[in-house]
Write a structure and sequence with these properties.
single chain; 356 residues; Rossmann fold; globular
Length: 356
Amino acid sequence: MEAFAQMGSMGHEQVLFVNNPDVGLRAIIGIHDTTLGPSLGGCRLYPYASEREALRDVLRLSRGMTYKAAVAGLDLGGGKSVIIGDPGIKSEALFRAFGRAIEGLGGRYITAEDMNTNVDDMNNIRRETRWVTGTGQATGGSGDPSPVTAWGVFSGIRATLEVVFGSPDVRGKKVAIQGVGHVGYYLAGYLHEAGAQLYYTDINGSSLRRCVDAYGGEVVDGEAFFGLDVDVLAPCAIGGIVNEHTIPQIKAPIIAGGANNQLNEEQRDGEALLERGITYAPDYVINAGGLINVYAELKGLPRDKAMDDAGAIFTTVKDIINRAKSEGVTTIRAANALAEDRIEKVGRIQRSYLPS
């Protein structure tokens, strides 16, 4: 499918391709919807196999950010960016060049950390544009949003446990985390403190060792993750991992993790989970803590406020699961309906002209 057809099918407003061969920059910025406010979403650095794969990722991720902000009640639209490259090869020039591209959008897109990018990278972007969050505290930023994201995921897991088992108590529950580099690592900490029995898988051996050293638990082979006899599967790495091949392997009654776009095909895979009686916490709902954190930064609010708001994901996740059950639909469909309703209603207000 061509780029314009993909944009049209998913409702995107704008896609920007950025190229600077002098510094090795090949990037795509996707702006999905700005009805609620400027688009905000992280910058992902990943060695995509093709430009087509990178475009699909940025389109799906930016759309997810629109729905994430809407359900979280934030005055933000959805955006995302991807840089095609080797995460092991970074430079000041690469991120500064990317920052100049963001500056050219005049505030329509605000970036932040994502997979394989960090506070140092955001600081370099900041040297060229003010439209960046998650920078170091020395530049007025709030730093790494991962602890807040993980707190929201932890809160969402507790909500799923209450719906499925009748109690939000984590103690003694078996939780398997896929990906323990950032969000997954902090999630393991919260779960360990609450008394969960932990299992981990990650392609990075040093991340696994760090997590086991800090919180104990058991390392499992990546192929075995989906078939584990546990209470909760918590995907916190790449997207598309809940699909027609992995769903038949799943034994856990709950999927609740921090990764974006966990369902490879939203409608098909959501229906397959429903048919199997597996409770799925919609990814963009349960992992909204990072967005809540950067929104707090934009508004000058303290980290404690962001943590409190991320904790409220407990109620949101529980309400969506219960709504889906009462309507006999998938949880992702129930969450989408909630998001679309807010965008439509706020869109009516925004049609009224206010002089600047």
